[in-house]
Amino acid sequence: YGFIELDVQWLVAMLFKQGKVSFTLNSQNISLVDTAGDELVRYLTKREYLEKLLIEMREHPTDKQMKSVREVMKDLFTMPSVNEEDDALIKSFKTRANNMLSKINELLTEYRLENRYPGKRVLENGKKMLAEAVEISAPMEFFRFVDSHKDDLLDFAEDSAPVFAFFAGEQKAIVVRAWKYIDIFNHSKTYVVDAEMIALVAQIHAVVAKDAPYSEIHKLPALLDQYASLHVTLIEKEVVPVQADMDADLAQVLEILHSKGLEIPFEQKIRTGYAELKEKLEHSNEVAAVKNMRYESDALKQRYIAEMEQYEKNHAATAQSGAPDEKAKPIVPTKP
């Protein structure tokens, strides 16, 4: 037709602008949305791109595929209406998907501190799908992917909403408290025979152990307060005999101390040791730990008694080696 090279370049550019052909450079899809006009001109006119730029007839997504993408964006990204065409729709989807991926990655770090938080599997599955969609560069492949995963993506939109709300609101703190109480109970459950406490822990665990406990977390504060009240009463009851044993151990050690006359090197140390043990007892929140204080007190008593005995032995040996025998004294000659 007598077209010169510039005419051909213009026609190809117009076909690309009209969406009738697609460009691929180094296996990467070239989009009007992501590529500046100057770059497109360079791809079409510079010889360095002559063999690298692949031009193909463009396949367009079906109405069903376009509708699937719009529905997913509306539910997953809470967008009221989406009217963009092919390339703009893809860009809009990927921008919001990347934002959501950043949010998911941030939340997944929470499970390193407490892996019993709910929703981890939901976030991981959603992350996998969104990451795959974002990595797709070919437009038709993108539309096919979203269309074929539409139901899964819509399920993720529904399932992830309460997970995001869990970490953003007060539910997380309530669940943290619940697991703390459960752990405290489990550490001492051998010693706990109170039927009401056992029943309360079972109710609390039944909620927090669910895959999706969000609608029932509101029940926990009242249950946790009930448990805390019973637990405090139990601890106070358990502390009394242990404190009596500690006082008896201290009295026994001090009696031995006074009988040996070792107040100066030992009394302050002994009183400080038992004061620290008493403070530890007062701040303990586990029945098992309180009961074990009885053994710590006895161990401390035995240690102090052994230290005093060793002290006496060391001083006796020092005194003996430092007092030479009178018969063994050397005769020192005197001047006449």
Features:
three-stranded antiparallel β-sheet; disordered C terminus; 13 helices; 336 residues; mainly alpha
Describe, in plain words, how this protein is organized in 3D.
It is built from 13 helices and three strands. It has 336 residues and is mainly alpha-helical. It has a three-stranded antiparallel sheet, covered by helices on one side. A hairpin with a 2-residue loop joins strand 1 and strand 2. Helix 3 crosses helix 7 and helix 11 runs antiparallel to helix 12. The chain is elongated.
Output the number of helix runs: 13
**Overall pLDDT:** 88
Shape: elongated
Order of helices and strands: HEEHEHHHHHHHHHHH
Low-confidence stretches: 325-336
User: How many E strands?
Assistant: 3
Strand order of the largest sheet: 2-1-3
Helix content: over 70%
Please tell me how large the radius of gyration is: 39 Å
Head-to-tail CA distance between termini: 148 Å
Strand content range: under 5%
Describe the biggest sheet? 3 strands, antiparallel
SS-based class: mainly alpha
